[in-house]
Amino acid sequence: MKSKLDVIIAGGGRVGFQTAEILDDQGHDVSIIERDEDRCDDISDAYLATVVEGDAANPDILEQADVERADVVAALTGETGVNLAACMAARELSPGTRTVCRIDRAASEAYTRFVDAVLFPERAGARVAANEIVGSDVRTLADVTGTLDIMQIRVEEGAPAAGRTLKEVRFPSGTLVISDDDGERIARPETTLDPGRQYVVAVEPEVVDEVLNLLRG
Fold first, then answer.
1. Among 31, 131, 144, 188, which residue's CB has the most CB atoms within a 10 Å radius?
2. Does residue 52 contact residue 62 with C-beta atoms inside 8 Å?
3. Does the predicted TM-score (pTM) go above 0.70?
4. Residues 6 or more apart from 70 whose CB is under 8 A from it?
């Protein structure tokens, strides 16, 4: 998974907008497709995403949002039918693009034949939506730990900390590497941060970017 993604979000409502805020904070490029003209103006004023006015289920609108360049299309409107149609259209127009679909019921198995990931709002809010979009390289559990982020981070080849032991890496204050690369033992000073492997790290919000730069470059 790329460290910086081009993401199209269908729906600029509460979930879509908050997801865009999180992704923008993480350094990803975000576009939002929204039908409501006034809502488009509000999103534009926030300066966090490129805004395309229209129906995301319309292939012409997806092409206007440059779907062929997108790494992920996340359909997060309040209408399951629109979300599914948008994801299926995105798959047709750009087969390599990851699709994330917000649904209105817990039974998700029927949808996974058509999309890569599904979200059930009663069980997952904006931060979980961002996690699904980014994929498995970085998983944030802040929804159960207050403002503290517990992250599972894959070390990128060539990152400043790659191949070094914990005692050799100068992590910022407010960082704790919790597990070793197999997740079965507590990390120790001699634990090596091997490229391609994942580690669980507790991070205070103000130093998240610095930690990600050390581990992912």
1. 131
2. no
3. no
4. 6, 7, 8, 31, 90, 94, 97
Instruction: Calculate what percentage of the chain has a pLDDT beyond 70.
Output: 83
CA distance 59 to 146: 40
pLDDT tier, 182 (very low <50, low <70, confident <90, very high otherwise): low
pLDDT tens per residue across span 42-73: 999 999 999 999 999 999 999 999 999 999 99
The alpha helices in the chain, defined as continuous H runs, are: 14-25, 37-46, 59-64, 80-93, 126-134, 208-216
Helix axes 14-25, 37-46, angle to 10 degrees: 20
Spatial separation of the C-alpha atoms in residues 62 and 168, rounded to whole Å: 47
Domain boundaries along the sequence of the chain: 6-135, 142-216
Q: Give dist(CA 37, CA 25) in Å, integer.
A: 25
Asked whether 163 and 192 are in contact (CB, 8 A), the reply is yes
Give the total residue count for the chain. 217
* Cα-based distances in Å from 40 to 48, 90, 198: 12, 21, 38
Query: Which one, of 72, 79, 73, 89, lies nearest residue 121 by Cα?
Result: 79
Fold of 6-135: Rossmann fold (3.40.50)
* pLDDT for res 206: 84
Q: Which CATH architecture has domain 142-216?
A: 2-Layer Sandwich (3.30)
